[in-house]
Design brief:
13-stranded antiparallel sheet, mainly beta, 26 strands, globular
Length: about 300
Amino acid sequence: MRSEKITSKNSLLDHFHFTDRFFSCKIFPNLGGSIQKLIIDDITIIKGITVDDSGVLDYLNRYQSAVLFPFPNRLEDGRYAFEDKPYTFPLNNPETKNAIHGFMNDKTFEVIRVTNNSLSLQFNSDGDKAFPFHYSLTINFILSKHHIQIQFGVENKGDTAFPFGLGWHPYFQLPNFGSNTLEFSADKTYTTTERGIPSGFEEYDTSVIDIDNASLDTAYHLIGPEIRLETARYELQMQTPEDCYLQIYTPPDKESIAIEPMTCIANAFNNGIGLKTLQPNKEYNWGLDLRINTKSLDNGFQ
């Protein structure tokens, strides 16, 4: 495997391109450290943006493979309180009048280290009005043809504790033929209001979801670490840490599925479900492990 830094007239599109025989992965430090397109054996696994200005606009609207921090999903009215102090995030989800997915998607990450098959990125902040805390967020990628490891690290560099949640928002390409199924172990699913804010939960015991006949924007509490996506062209196994949540979103075009592991559910800053609190000078580490096996058109593994 080799890595190459690609520069663009629009610096947001500068990226590292990792390539090997029948392998291509592009990671964009200036778009929040996001993976934009993963191709294995000529099969698109992670759907990314076009490398142009229209692609940037698409990413800022759809959050393809964005790191979700300091909260995933929606925050009601963009408001929360911590230690009796109120704070407000911009309402970047005007359709529901909520804040959504934190604010890391357009941040520029510093490149800490790059090798032929790995990349370490870091973002440091002294805080702002909405989230006035001193922290760093690190992302480490380790790549091989059929195995991708992503490690996230949050460090509290300030003098006070802060609340947070963390998530990842990849869209996985779906073939337009054959069947597509998703399997994971969960014990509950969360009902929501029309604005996408959790309002309760229901027991969940379905083991396999027929994606082709599903319309989802739904959160689940996982009781097992493995998520399995089966398509006509590839099989994905995603391993999550224990005590995780999962958001599944099926876009109307049915060309992809967003499989979003999270440390907490929507509006966690207010409902507390899965919310983390990081004390001064402490670190929190969270990792995802992806294994991908591609298939030939006769449905045999390559």
